[in-house]
Amino acid sequence: MSSTLVLLLATVVCFFAIVHLPEGGQAADDCTVCPELRVYQEKGGHDFVSMMNTNSPPTSSSSDNNPGSTATPTSTSTPIPVYTRCGPSAPRILYKRPHALICNGKTDTWGKAMSEYDCPICIGVLKEAAITRCGHTFCLECIKRSLSVKPICPQCGTAEQTENIVPNYIADQLVIKYLSTQKNAKTEIAKLNDTSPSEILQNMNVHKLNLNNIENLIIILQRKRDVLSAESRVHERTLLLEFLGELLKLKKAEKDRLEKEVYLIEQDLTQVTSRPYNAVKGGGMNVLHNDLESGDEGIPMSSDIEGFNTQVLSCQELKEKSMSARRKRMHSHFDELINIYMDSRKVDLHDVRRNDATVVPNDSFDYQDLDRFGSTLSRISRYSGLKPLATLSYSADLLTNNNIVSSIEFDKDSEFFAIAGVTRKIKLFEYATVIGSSVDIHCPNAELLCNAKISCVAWSGYYKNRLGSSDYDGFVTIWDASTTQKIQNLTEHEKRVWSVDWSNGDPRLFASGSDDSKVKLWTTITNQSVATIEAKANVCCVKFCPQNSFIVAFGCADHCIQYYDFRHARQPLATLTGHKKAVSYVKFASKDELISASTDSNLKLWNLQSASTECVRSFTGHINEKNFVGLGTDGNYIACGSENNSLYIYYRDISRPLLHFKFDNNPNMLKVDDAGEFVSAVVWKKGSPVIVAANSQGSIKILELT
């Protein structure tokens, strides 16, 4: 029995010896310290004996585990690390497995990784802090809810009752201070985000930075650069996708529009090609031949050519030459002609029936717009220049510079024309006599002597011998041109009168506009005005509507054009705005169309029939910044002067000049250059391509479009 006990004891001893063999499989000759104990002694400086003689671990502040935080009391339930000696006589060592990481990296709801201002129950900042009898602090609502479920402290397990909970005012104050610090930190971060990097570096104490700090800064900046680069690439890709998508939509819409335009042009081309040429039938070629022989005076015919070795041009060659010149003029305005064509055909462009192949193009659509465009094309290319027919002089004294012609007007039959200006004379010439004379000096048929400088003259549209004039002294005078005597002298205007015009509908009515900002309606029956329109600025020009006896348009120095009915003079029918300077002239192109000239170097065509009375087109190319340069029209072509001593011709559908004519310097003038000379008056001879224009030196040209 004793031997059996001895054998059993030896077996147990051997087992423990094998279990506690040191690393390497060999038993230690003496008690040696385990590696864990050696590390612990090196770090903490405590030996095994002192550790074993106490029931608590070496004290350490919470700053060892959480730098930057304040120290907190160590819980008695914290597991004590126990280290042992190797050998059969040493006590057994047990290591407690750490808690799993939960809740954003915290070991548990009351671990040391949690902030001291957090509630252990809700893991949020303390709200209405309350302390239990055991000394732990929670949110008031959280601890009440916890105790209602189980009446023990959630942190230490001590029995607690709701009645024993008291407010923790100190904790509340600390929480308030903590939140204020956090808010200030966020504010500083926001300020830092608004601060430029150069200011941040300037405010930073760079002298205290060591190499590690600089390397860390570089790493942080590189990471930030990578983040910004990635965001930039994302934004770039997003914008690129949006741009390409919008561009694709635009190009598809443009493609659809171009396809419709091409289809419309092909239809028009087919229509023009298949249309019978009516001019060839019924002697059309003979009419054309006669026009060529008698029409262009600038092109010599074979029967008129004499001289040594002169090449005689046939009719066919003349036609080809004329067509070549017209083709050249067409191409010089090709861009604007494209716009005119598309505007005239825009209704047919959006006609969905044209996409139906079953519809016959030649029989199903109206081509009047195409015909009108053809007429426009013909008018644009018809004339190639201005040919002087005669030259007159307003004043016999060529050495004076004060010879400005302010107004030229034809009578109702275009047989006589009147010339007036600053010499206080109105000279009357017979057109046929001037044109038919072979001499360069032309004497007037009559002269009307005035008391002041003349600003405007106007012939009555009903009485052939009735002529009206306005002057710088503010007088409006009615003359009998046949006797050169004054019929009426009207003096109601208080300042200079710029314009006078007769009504076409009622031969007794005429109107005047003045610097006193008034437009007055007069009658030949009495010397008192019968109506007055108060304008807001100086009135520079007045014109009656050709088809209405009471409607007038007048331009003012406030850049506006007023359109009035004298029978309802309180409110204008329309106010046309668009000019940038004073409106110097207005002319009616038709009943519903008005042309205006301004010292902003622009002519404008207005549509009076539209609700918005919009500007249809602006004409630019001449120079007009300070003077009255004249304006004339036949309804299709527009003539105006320029301050470079030239006359410009426009067509109503083209914004650029078709033609221009330069006035010559008078060789008898003392002035060498023409820097100050300008065309001052223009009139269009009714029913013909003849224009009479005068400049500031008193030179008058009768010009014909050829």
Count of separate DSSP helical elements = 14
How far apart are the first and last residues' alpha carbons, in Å? Answer: 154 Å
Radius of gyration: 53 Å
The amount of helix comes to 25-40%
Textual characterization of the structure:
Among the domains are: 118-183, Herpes Virus-1; 386-705, Methylamine Dehydrogenase, Chain H. Helix content is 30%, strand content 24%. Strands 4-31-30-29 form a four-stranded antiparallel sheet, with no helix packed on it. A four-stranded antiparallel sheet has the order 5-6-7-8. Strand 30 and strand 31 (699-705) form a beta hairpin. The longest helix has 64 residues, at 211-274.
Task: Give a short summary of the structure.
Residues 50-79 have a biased composition (Low complexity). With 706 residues, the chain is an alpha+beta fold.
How are the secondary structure elements laid out?
Blueprint: H1 2-19, H2 35-44, H3 48-52, E1 129-131, E2 137-139, H4 140-149, E3 166-167, H5 169-194, H6 197-203, H7 211-274, H8 284-294, H9 315-332, H10 334-344, H11 346-349, H12 361-364, H13 368-382, E4 386-393, E5 405-410, E6 416-421, E7 425-430, H14 431-436, E8 446-449, E9 454-459, E10 466-471, E11 476-480, E12 485-490, E13 497-502, E14 509-514, E15 518-523, E16 526-534, E17 539-544, E18 551-556, E19 560-565, E20 574-577, E21 583-590, E22 593-598, E23 602-607, E24 615-619, E25 631-633, E26 637-641, E27 646-651, E28 659-662, E29 679-684, E30 690-695, E31 699-705
Antiparallel strand pairs: 1-2, 1-3, 4-31, 5-6, 6-7, 7-8, 9-10, 10-11, 11-12, 13-14, 14-15, 15-16, 17-18, 18-19, 19-20, 21-22, 22-23, 23-24, 25-26, 26-27, 27-28, 29-30, 30-31
Helix pairs in contact: 9-13, 10-13
